[in-house]
Amino acid sequence: MAPEIYVCVTCRRAGEPDIEPRPGVLLAEATERAAAGTEVIVRRLKCLANCTRGPSVALRCNGSWTYLFGGLDPADAGALIDGARLLAGARDGILPWLGRPDVLKRGLIARVPPIGFTESDL
Amino acid sequence: MAPEIYVCVTCRRAGEPDIEPRPGVLLAEATERAAAGTEVIVRRLKCLANCTRGPSVALRCNGSWTYLFGGLDPADAGALIDGARLLAGARDGILPWLGRPDVLKRGLIARVPPIGFTESDL
After folding, report:
1. Which of B42, B33, B53 is nearest to B7 (CA)?
2. Of B34, B21, B18, nearest to B103 (Cα)?
3. A→B interface, C-beta within 8 Å
4. Looking at chain B, which terminus has fewer C-beta neighbours within 10 angstroms, N or C?
5. pLDDT digits (tens, 9 = 90+) for B52-99
6. How far is CA B121 from CA A44, A47, B39, in A?
């Protein structure tokens, strides 16, 4: 499975008035542009429930953990694509810290294990 | 697939000193006790990267969205089991708001879509 980035198009910036197009839509457009010509798939969806820390995306690929990022900006679209390709190349399904774009460090909201995951040493 | 609750056993409370057993371990123990005799599977893992708002769990079942909750306490274990069973009965894979235990409303951190999800009206 190619890496997928789900972009929440309903995201606003916390504490800011509602404007159109929403910041989430602008992020989706920028991410779609940045993904053009790559193997990364960008999908729009309506809510990742990270409303207090948007704009938000979820990132995953085949058998990987799923990563949630927040506080994003259209200028971060290239970093999202870089992160998606980094995850796609990670054999353990974990997004490496080394080489990870800074915005995917400071913007990390949470991560979710792949289906069927069991911790090996617990 | 039976509903699964992943409990992060490395969670501490933000701003509190490190104590043993960690609050995440106490939550895992309470959740395992509350799940006894139900179909709910409780799995321990090491980090959901929700470190600023722990203790944390992830909840999902077959084909459902995955829900992340934070700020939890061992006293919330019963609510987690109730929520897991509510999700297991949701045909659309979405945890209903109506009837959802309060702690799974105020403690919601984020949600991620099932594998292969596409928004139907975007």
Report:
1. B42
2. B34
3. 6, 9, 43-50, 56, 58, 60, 66-68, 108-113, 115, 117-119, 122
4. C
5. 999 999 999 989 999 999 999 999 999 999 999 999 999 999 999 999
6. 10, 13, 34
Q: What is the pLDDT of residue A19?
A: 87
What is the tens place of the pLDDT at every residue in B3-37?
999 999 998 887 788 888 999 999 999 999 999 99
Measured between beta carbons, the chain A residues lying within 8 angstroms of B6 are 112-113, 117
Alpha carbons A111 and A116: distance in angstroms, whole number: 15
Are A58 and B111 in contact, with CB atoms under 8 Å apart?
no
**CB of B61 closer than 8 Å to CB of B2:** yes
How far is B75 from chain A, CA to nearest CA, in Å?
A: 23
Contact assignment for B109 to A47 by CB distance below 8 Å: no
Q: Dig out the tokens for B3 from the structure.
A: 């509903």
Length of chain A: 122
Q: Which of A92, A112, A117 to mutate to test the interface with B (most CBs of B within 10 A)?
A: A112
If you average pLDDT over residues A75-96, what whole number do you get? 97
B45 phi, psi to nearest 5 deg? -145, 180
ipTM: 0.94
Interface contact flag, A45 B111, Cβ < 8 Å: no
